[in-house]
Amino acid sequence: xxxxxxxxxxxxxxxxxxxxxxxxxxxxxxxxxxxIASEIMASVDGASDADWDAAWLAELEHRREAAAQRKEAAPxxxxxxxRVLSQLGARPLGACEA
Length: 98
What we know:
2 strands, 4 helices, two-stranded antiparallel ribbon
């Protein structure tokens, strides 16, 4: 699956070099993009915090159980992605001012 290029309000200030690199990354297959994203996130994430990890896993389990009790179907990735992009105020490629 090829990514749909999107420019968000938070990346309009990228340098031309960063934008070019992003465009090249978005053209890669999904698996490679996920690998790159994971490495970038790890590079800025800081040291692991076992207490935070445990608290987050407990919260995820709590949410999973609550949804299961409500017999709530999980939304599709397309629905989630559309909602997130809408909340972020995503605009079509080229929407940033020059």
